[in-house]
Amino acid sequence: MFVSDVASIPVIQLEGPGIIKAAKQSLIGPAQGWDGWSMRLFTLSEGGQTPRHSHPWPHINYVVGGRGTLFLGGKEHPIQAGSIAYIPGGEEHQFMNVSGEDFSFICIVPAEADK
Q1: Using an 8 Å Cβ cutoff, are 77 and 37 in contact?
Q2: Residues of the signal sequence (predicted)?
Q3: Domains with residue ranges and CATH for the chain
Q4: What is the per-residue pLDDT for 29?
Q5: How far apart, in Å, are the Cα atoms of 36 and each of 8, 19, 84?
Q6: DSSP per residue, 51-111
Q7: What's the predicted TM-score (pTM) here?
Q8: What is the pLDDT of residue 115?
Q9: 27-38: b or e for each residue (b if 16 or more CB lie within 10 Å)?
Q10: Measured CA distances, 92 to 46, 73, 76, 101 (Å)
Q11: Of 19, 38, 49, 74, which has the fewest CB atoms closer than 10 Å, so is most exposed?
Q12: In whole angstroms, what is the distance from residue 93 CA to residue 42 CA?
């Protein structure tokens, strides 16, 4: 069993090619008893983005705040709080903040993908 609050989870500022103003919090995973899976919260500040990339694992996303664009399937899709997305493994994708506020989304992946 695990009960906590997002405010108590460490925030990791991400760095690397194509990453701009992005932070990650690893909310629930094997360490909290969810074997095989990890739920993370990503926050992109104004002008922030993830790199355009692909990887072998799928992920499930739920937008919790703000507005953004998801590049997926060769197209840009507007997304906002309440939007959901499934990204198959191997599919090129990118999240971009297009608003003047934080853009936050939950991302669920296999545990080995949360490095």
Answers
A1: no
A2: none
A3: 11-113 (2.60.120.10)
A4: 95
A5: 23, 26, 21
A6: PSB--SS-EEEEEEESEEEEEETTEEEEEETT-EEEE-TT--EEEEE-SSS-EEEEEEEEG
A7: 0.95
A8: 73
A9: bbbeeeeeeeeb
A10: 23, 7, 12, 25
A11: 74
A12: 15
Structure tokens at 27: 């909310």
Q: How far apart are CA 25 and CA 44, in angstroms?
A: 12
Which residues does the chain have with pLDDT short of 50? none
Query: Nearest to residue 69, comparing CAs of 103, 107, 97?
Result: 97
Q: What's the pLDDT score for residue 83?
A: 98
At 100, which amino acid appears? G
Q: Is 62 exposed, middle or buried (0-12, 13-18, 19+ CB in 10 A)?
A: middle
